[in-house]
Amino acid sequence: MSSFIATFVVLLAFFFLMSIGYLIKHKAVAGSCGGLGSLGIDKACDCDDPCDKRRAKMEDEDSRKEKLTQNRII
Fold it and tell me: pTM above the 0.85 mark?
């Protein structure tokens, strides 16, 4: 039981310190690596020749975009 209480206190201390940092800097917590965009990858599946399942999904997305542009009122 004492390890649970100690873990809870440490967790609360981290939340408290992060909230103090937010109040001082007015900046939200953000990742440092930049994600896939920093590596030059535009999408999660960056294959030259996508598999059949991915190709069907891409065709479906293209047809939906085409339908939206055709049926647009404005």
Answer: no
Measured CA to CA, the distance from residue 35 to residue 41 in angstroms comes to: 9
How many Å apart are CA 48 and CA 55, to the nearest integer? 11
pLDDT in tens, 11-32: 999 999 988 888 888 776 666 6
C-alpha dihedral, 11 to 16 to 19 to 21, nearest 10°? -100
Dihedral pair phi/psi, residue 28, rounded to 5°: -70, 160
Cα-to-chain-centroid distance, residue 11: 24
Locate all alpha helices (DSSP H) within the chain, ordered by sequence.
Answer: 2-25, 52-70
How many other C-beta atoms are found inside a 10 Å radius of the C-beta of residue 17? 10
